[in-house]
Write a structure and sequence with these properties.
By secondary structure, chain A is α+β, with helices and mostly antiparallel strands. Chain A is 24% helix and 41% strand. In chain B, helix 2 runs antiparallel to helix 7 and helix 4 (145-166) crosses helix 5. Classes of the chains: A alpha+beta, B mainly alpha. Bound molecules: adenosine-5'-diphosphate (3 copies).
C-alpha cells in the first residue's frame, strides 16, 4: 500500500475531488496547510507597509491506495497543473498496514 | 401637574367673579395672572424636560463609545490579546463612573470659588439626591444634576479609553488599571477644570480671547493622546514590530470588529458633540450634528485619496482611522463651522491621519491602533482650526477666528501638553520601576489572553471536541 | 396647530375691540382667556410630545436588548450552537410583539375592573387606532396608547429571552418556541398584572405597604430566572459538562460577541429603567440613569475583586456577568437609591453573581451563560434591597425602607416563585413527555446548528474552496 | 431665554401699574398680552425643540442602518470578500453625506419653482448657516434646516447601500464607487423629487389621488432594488454559483454578523419610518413605530412558516430576510395601517421574500444577500398595500385605499421602474465597457480582500507566529 | 519505530486520549482534517438549497512508537468503533529516525 | 529522499524559517497541529474552574530533502532548542517518489 501526499493549490481542490471520484478514488483525507516554496506569496498591505504573508494557503491530500498509484499521480498532475510556479508537489511513501476501525479489517480489504 | 393647574383655574374663577361685580367689563374674556403664571411655570418645566431628554440621549450615545473603542481596538490587534483588550475597555468606564461619583466631578467642576484657578476641589461624593423629598432642579436650565454627572463621567471614561488602544498587546493589566485610575481620577479632571470647569484657560491673560474647545479636541482627545504617547514610549514597541530596522506589519485580527467600532464611535459622536451644546437648542445641536457628520465623511474621503495616492492601497483600516480623524478634528469647533469648512477640516484631518500613522511607524512609536495619530494629532489640529476657520459670533464664547484666537489655542494646546505628557510619562515610569509595566516576553508571545486572563477570546469550531 | 391659534387670536381681537367700547381701560394690554387657553392646550400637547419622545426612545433601547441577549448568549456558548441561539433570540421578540398585540397587553393590563385581582382580561386585539380619524390621546399624560403597547411588548420579549441562554446548547428549537409562546402569552402577563396591572400585589393586605418593583427585578428578571431554572433542571446538564463528578468547563466561543452583548444590554437598560418612569420627568429619569450606571459599574468592580480574591483570575466573563448583576440588582429600586446606595447594590450584586455561578456549577445546574445567577439571584436581591435601602418618600409608591416593606418584598418574591417555577416546571415536563424537550445526544455533539438548522454559523477562510 | 421672559415680565408690571391708576378693577388679577405673547413664543420654540430632538434621534438611527447593512452583507458573503464589503459600506455614507451637502439636497428639494415638475435644481451648496449671526429657524415648524439636511443625506446613503449587497463578491471597488456617485448624485434625488420634493407624482393627473409613499418603499427601497437588479444582471453570477445547471449554495461566513446587522436595521427603521413623520407628533410617530415593529415581527413569523412548510428548514438567513421584508413592506403605509393590517403586511412580505429568494436563484439572478427580494419585491408590494389596506383619512395625504389609489400606486411604481432600471443598466454597462465592472476570475477566486485591498478581514489565531 | 496515523471521528477524540493514556501512550500529535469517505457527509441547507458540506470534520492522530504497535491499534479500534459507516482508518508506516529537540537524543530513547 | 517531520513550538517558527533559508532549504510545508506531551499544557480558567486546554498549539513542518538530512536536523535542533520541556520532536521517514505537478518531473530534480 502506498500513501500519496499531494500539496496542491486550494483553488484546485474541488476540481481534483471530481477527477479522483471519476477514476474511482472516493476516500481520502485532506487538510489546510501552508506552503513555503517557489511561488511568490500573497502580497498584503497593512497601514502603509507592504508585506507578504510568508506562505501560500494550500490543501494537502493524503490518499492511501493499494494499486493505481501511477493513475492517481497522473490524475493529480493533469488536474492541478496550471504551468505557473507553485502548482505543488506529490510525495509517495510506503504504508505497512491499514486497519478499518469499524470492522477491524486489515490490509487491502480495509481500504475498499 | 394638570390637576394643580385645574385647581388654580378654579381659584382664579372665584376671583374673576369678584371682579365682575366691580366692573362693567365682560370679564369672562379676561384671564387671571395666576393661570398665566402657572402656564409659564409649566413651560419652563417642559423646556427643562426637553433639553434633559436630549442630554440623556447624548449620555447614552457617549456611553456606547466605550463599546466602539473596545471593538476598534480589539479588531486592530491580534486575536491572542483580544480578551485583554475587551477587559480593559469594559473596566475603564466602570472605573470612570465610580471615580466621577466619588470625587472626579467635584475636581473638574469645583465651582465659582475656584474660578480662573488651576486647581480646585468641591469635596467628596455627589450631592444628596433629595431636597425635601424632591430633587433639586435649580441646577441648570438645560438638564438636571444627575444628567450632568453621568454625561461628565462618560466623557472621562472616553479620555482614559484612548490610552488603552495605544498600549495594547504588551501592558500588564494591573498596571493599566493603575494608570486608568490616575488619568480619570487626577489628570483628566484637572485639565477639564482648566477649560470647562471655570479654570484659567478661560482668562488666558492680556487681551487674548479665551481658549475655545467646544467638545474637547484638546481637553478630551489630546489628553488621552498625550498619555497614550507617553505610555507607548515608556513601554517600547511590541516584540517583532521592528526587526533589523524594518517595520513588520502586525495586522489586526478582525476588520468587521474594527468597522463596527468606528460606526459606533461615529454614532457616539452625535452625543459627544451634540451633547456638548449642553441644551437641546435646535439651531446649535443640529448644526453640530451636520458639521460632525460632514467632517467624518470628509475624513473617510481624505484618507481614501491620501492612502490611494501616497500608499497605492485601498486600506480599510486607514479609512476607518480617517473617519475618526475627521471626528476628532471637528470636535473643537463643531458649533462654529459652516458645512464647507467642516468638509475642509475632515479632508485635512483624514489625510493627516494617514501620514501620521506612517510617520509614527517610521520613528518606531508602536501604536497598534493609531490612537496617537487620531486623538493627539487631529486633536491638536482641530483645536488650531478654531483659530483659522469658523465664525465665532455664533453661540460660542470665542472671539472669532484670527491671530489672537490662534495664539490662545496654541497656549491651551501647549499647556495641556506640558502637563499631561510629563505627568503621564512619570507615572508610567514609576509603575514600570515598581510593579512593572510590561508583561514578560514569553507572555507577550503567548498572548495576554492566556497569560493574564487564562482565557482565549475565540474557540471557533474547536468545540466538537467537547 | 399654529394656524388654529392664529384664528383664535383673530377671534379674540374682535372681542377685545368690543370691550374697548365699554371700558376706559387700555385693553390692548389685556388678553383673552381664549388665547391663554389655547396656549395652555398647546403646552399640554408639547408635554405629551416630550414624554412620548422619551418613551419611544426607551422602547427602542429595550428593543436592542434583544440583540444584547443574542450576542451574550451566543458568545458564551459554543460555535456549533451559534446559529441556533441567534435563531431563538431573533424569533423571541417577534413572538413577543405579535402576542402582545393579540392578547398579552390586555392580559397584563386588564383595566380597573380587575383591580387588586390575581387575573383579568380585557379582550383580544389592540384598540382601534382611530377615533373619528384621530388617535385617542386621552390614554395617558406621558405617552400614547401605541407607545405603551410597544414598550410593554419589548419588556415581555426580554423576560422570555432570559430563558433562552440558560437552556442553550441542548433544547429542541420547536420546544423552545412552544415555551416562549407560553411564557409571553400566559406566565409573564399574569405576574405583570399582579404588580403593574393593578393586581393584588398592590394591596398585599393588613397594614403592609404595597410591593415595590420599579422596573422589574422580580416581575421581569426573576420571572425569566425561575423559568430558566425550571428549564435547566428538566433538561439536565450538557453532555460532557459533569464527568466523573468533575466540572468540565465549556468555554464560550467568542468574547467579543459576549462583550458587545453586555454593552448593548447596559445601553438597553437606560431604556428599561429610564422608561419605567413612564414619563420624561427630568428629576426621576436622570436619577434613574445615574443609579443604573453606578450599579452596573460597581457590579463590574465587585465581580473583578471577587473573582480575583476568590478565584485568583481576571475572568472577563465574570466581569460581564457582574455588570449584568449590578443592572438587575438596581432595577427594583432604581428611582429610590442615592449614588452611594447604588454603588453598594452594584458591589454586592456583582460579587454575588460570581459566587452564584460557582454555586450553580457545584450543584450541577448547568446554565451556560449564567442567566439564573444574573437574573434570578440578583433579581431577588434587588427586590429585597428596596426593603433595606433607599428613601421611599421620593416618587415611588412604596412606604420607605423598613421591616414592613421588607416583608412585602418577600411576599412578592415568594408569590412569583410559587407561581412561575412550578408552572414552568410542569410546562417543560409536559413538553418533554410529548414532543420532546432535548435533542438527541448525537445532535447535541454534532451541534444544533447543523442538526436543527442545517447551517453552520461560521465559514471563515473555508471559502477558498468554492 | 428665561432672562428675556423675566425682563418682559418687569416691563409688563410697569404697564399694569399704570392701568391700576385708571381703573377700579383689581388689575393684579389681570395680565398683559406681552407676557402671554412671550409665553406663546416660548411654547413655539419648545415645540420646535422637541420635534427637532426626535428628528435628530431618527437621523442617528438611520445613520446606524449603514452599519446594519455592512454587517448583514458581510455576514452573508464569504470571508474572503469581507474587507471589501465593509469598505463599500463605509465609503457609501461618506460619499452620500458629502454629495448631499454639495448638490443632492437641492436636486431633491428644488423648491416651489419646480412644483409638479420632473426635474429641478436649486443650486450648489447648503445655505449659509447664519442669518445675522443666528440660524434661520423659519425653515420648518418640525426641525431645523440642518436636521433636514442630515436626515435626507442619511436616507440617500441607505438607497445606495442596498446595491452594494447585491453586487457583492465580484464588482470592482472603483466601479462600485462610480455607480454610488451616480445613484446618490443623480438617480435617487430625481426620483425623490418626484415623490417628496413636490414633483409630478403629487399630481399624477386626471381624478387620480396623489401617489402615496410614506417613508419610501418605492422612493428609497425600490430605487435601490432596481439599481441592484440592473447591477446583478450586467455583472452576472459569481463563479461557482451555477454549475452544470445546478445551484451551488455559497453560504455566508458569519451568522452572528448577519444577525447583528438585521437587528441594527430594525432599530434603524424606528428612525427611518418614525422620522418620516417629519415631526414628533405623538399620535403619528408612535403609531408608526408600532406598525413598523408589528410588520417586522410578522415578517419573521411569515418567513419561518414559509421556509418550514415550503423548504423544510429553519433557515436563519431566511428569518432575517423575512424581518427585512416586513420592514420594507410596511414602509409605504406605516402611518396608515392598523395593528392587524400591519401583521398581515408583515406575514405576506416575510413569506414572499422566501419565494423571491428561491425564484431569483432559479432564474440565475445571483444576489448574495437577497437585496432584490427584500428591497425591490417587498418595496413594490408595500407600495401596493397602500391601495388595498389602511385608512387614508388619518394624517396621510392619500385619498384612502381603493381602486383609484391602487392605480396611482401602480403608476408610481412603474414610473420609478421605467427610470431607475434602464438608467442603472446603461450606467453599469458603460462602466463595464470602459473601466471594467468585474474583477478578474483569478481575483474573484482569490477573494477581493487580497486582490483589491491587500488585506485579509480575519487573522484569528494566526498571530502566534508573529 | 512506527508511525501510527489514525483518522477518527472528532467526537471520539477525548475518549481515545483517555484510553491511550491508560495504556501508557502519553505523547502524540493531532490535528483537524477533513475526510472524504463512505459516511454520508453533513447535510446543510442555505437559502432553500440543500447541499452537503462535502466532507466530515475529523481528527488525525499521529503516534510514533517503538513497540506496542498492536496494542495501540487495538486500543484505537476498541475505543473509536461505533459500527456505523465512517469510523475511520488507521495507517502504519515506518519511521527511520527520531530526535528529541530539547536534548538532541536519537532513536528510541528520544521517544520516552 | 527523506521526509523530515518536525513538531516545534509555534513561537520558534519564524526563526526556524530564517535558519532553514540560510542553509538553503527554501521549500517546505507546514501546518497547525496540537501536541500532547511532556510539557504542561496551557492553563485556562473559565467561570471559576481551572482547566488545561489539554494540548499545546504547535507547528508541524514537513520537509522533503534528497540530501543534507543531518544538516537539517541540526539546524532544527539548534534553532528550536530552549532546554525546557516541550521543545518538540523530529521524525525522519522514507519517501519513494516525488512529482512536481507543474512539470511532471520525477525524483530528485522535482525537489529543486
Ligand atoms: N521539499 C519540499 N518539502 C515539502 N513541501 C514542499 C517541498 N517543495 C515544495 N513543497 C510544497 O509544494 C508547494 C509548491 O511548490 P513550489 O516550489 O512553490 O512550486 P513548483 O513546484 O511549481 O516550483 C509549496 O508551497 C510547498 O507547500
Ligand atoms: N484510502 C484512504 N486514504 C486516506 N484516508 C482515508 C482512506 N479511506 C478512508 N479514509 C479516511 O477515513 C475516514 C473514514 O472512512 P470511511 O470510509 O468513511 O469509513 P469506514 O472505514 O467506516 O467505511 C474518511 O473520512 C477518510 O478521512
Ligand atoms: N511519540 C510521539 N508521537 C507523536 N508526537 C510526539 C511524540 N512525542 C512527542 N510528540 C510531539 O512533540 C511535542 C513535544 O514533546 P514533549 O514530550 O512535550 O517534549 P520533550 O521532547 O521536550 O520532552 C509534543 O507536544 C507532541 O506534539
Amino acid at each position: 500500500m502506498k500513501k500519496i501526499e499531494a500539496v496542491i493549490r486550494t483553488s484546485k481542490f474541488l476540481e481534483l475531488k471530481e477527477s479522483l471520484n471519476k477514476m474511482g478514488i472516493q476516500f481520502f483525507t485532506y487538510s489546510d496547510v501552508k506552503g513555503v516554496g517557489h511561488q511568490a506569496t500573497e502580497k498584503a498591505v497593512y497601514r502603509g507597509v507592504q508585506y507578504d504573508l510568508g506562505y501560500i494557503a494550500r490543501t494537502k491530500l493524503e490518499i492511501i491506495v493499494s494499486e493505481k498509484v501511477e493513475e492517481v499521480i497522473k490524475c493529480i498532475v493533469d488536474t492541478c497543473k496550471t504551468g505557473e510556479l507553485g502548482d505543488g508537489k506529490i510525495f509517495v511513501s510506503n504504508i505497512e498496514e491499514c486497519v478499518r476501525i469499524r470492522t477491524g479489517e486489515r490490509g487491502v480489504p480495509a481500504l475498499q | 401637574m394638570t390637576t394643580a393647574v385645574l385647581d388654580t383655574v378654579e381659584a382664579a374663577a372665584t376671583i374673576i367673579d369678584t371682579i365682575k361685580t366691580v366692573s362693567a367689563i365682560p370679564v369672562d374674556t379676561l384671564v387671571s395672572a395666576t393661570l398665566v403664571n402657572a402656564t409659564q411655570a409649566q413651560v419652563e418645566s417642559i423646556s427643562l424636560t426637553s433639553s434633559n431628554i436630549w442630554m440623556m440621549i447624548c449620555t447614552a450615545l457617549v456611553f456606547i463609545m466605550n463599546l466602539g473603542f473596545a471593538s476598534v481596538e480589539s479588531g486592530l490587534a491580534r486575536s491572542k490579546n483580544t480578551t485583554n483588550i475587551l477587559f480593559k475597555n469594559t473596566i475603564t468606564p466602570a472605573i470612570g463612573i465610580i471615580i466621577f461619583s466619588l470625587w472626579g466631578l467635584n475636581l473638574m467642576y469645583p465651582g465659582a470659588n475656584y474660578a480662573e484657578k488651576i486647581y480646585g476641589f468641591a469635596g467628596f461624593g455627589l450631592e444628596e439626591p433629595l431636597i425635601d423629598g424632591k430633587l433639586d432642579l435649580s441646577y441648570n436650565s438645560g438638564y438636571t444634576y444627575w444628567t450632568n454627572f453621568l454625561f461628565q463621567a462618560m466623557f472621562a471614561a472616553t479620555a482614559a479609553t484612548i490610552v488603552s488602544g495605544a498600549v495594547a498587546e504588551r501592558i500588564k493589566i494591573t498596571s493599566y488599571m493603575i494608570f486608568t485610575f490616575i488619568i480619570i481620577g487626577v489628570i483628566y479632571p484637572i485639565v477639564g477644570m482648566w477649560g470647562w470647569g471655570g479654570g484659567w484657560l478661560n482668562v488666558i491673560g492680556g487681551d487674548l480671547p479665551s481658549f475655545y474647545d467646544f467638545a474637547g479636541s484638546t481637553i478630551v482627545h489630546s489628553v488621552g493622546g498625550w498619555a497614550a504617547l507617553a505610555g507607548v514610549i515608556v513601554l517600547g514597541p511590541r516584540i517583532g514590530k521592528y526587526v533589523d530596522g524594518k517595520i513588520i506589519p502586525i495586522p489586526g485580527h478582525s476588520m468587521p470588529l474594527a468597522t463596527i467600532g468606528v460606526f459606533l464611535l461615529w454614532l457616539g459622536w452625535f452625543g459627544f458633540n451634540g451633547g456638548s451644546v449642553l441644551s437641546a437648542d435646535p439651531a446649535r445641536t443640529s448644526l453640530v450634528l451636520a458639521t460632525t457628520s460632514l467632517s467624518a465623511a470628509a475624513g473617510a474621503i481624505g484618507a481614501l485619496i491620501t492612502a490611494y495616492v501616497y500608499l497605492k492601497t485601498l486600506d480599510l483600516s486607514m479609512i476607518l482611522n480617517g473617519i475618526l480623524g475627521g471626528l476628532v478634528g471637528i470636535t473643537a469647533g463643531a458649533d462654529l463651522m459652516s458645512p464647507n469648512e467642516s468638509i475642509l477640516i475632515g479632508l485635512i484631518s483624514g489625510s493627516v491621519v494617514v501620514f501620521a500613522v506612517v510617520f509614527f511607524d517610521k520613528i518606531k512609536v508602536d501604536d497598534p491602533v493609531g490612537a496617537t495619530s487620531v486623538h493627539l494629532v487631529c486633536g491638536i489640529l482641530g483645536t488650531l482650526f478654531v483659530g483659522i476657520l469658523g465664525d465665532k459670533g455664533f453661540g460660542g464664547s470665542a472671539e472669532g477666528a484670527g491671530f489672537s484666537q490662534l495664539i490662545t489655542q496654541l497656549i491651551g494646546i501647549t499647556a495641556v501638553a506640558a502637563f499631561v505628557f510629563p505627568v503621564s510619562y512619570i507615572v508610567f515610569t514609576i509603575i514600570s520601576k515598581t510593579v512593572g509595566l510590561r508583561v514578560s516576553a514569553k507572555e507577550e508571545i503567548e498572548g495576554l489572553d492566556i497569560a493574564e486572563h487564562g482565557m482565549k477570546a475565540y474557540n471557533i469550531d474547536m468545540d466538537k471536541e467537547y
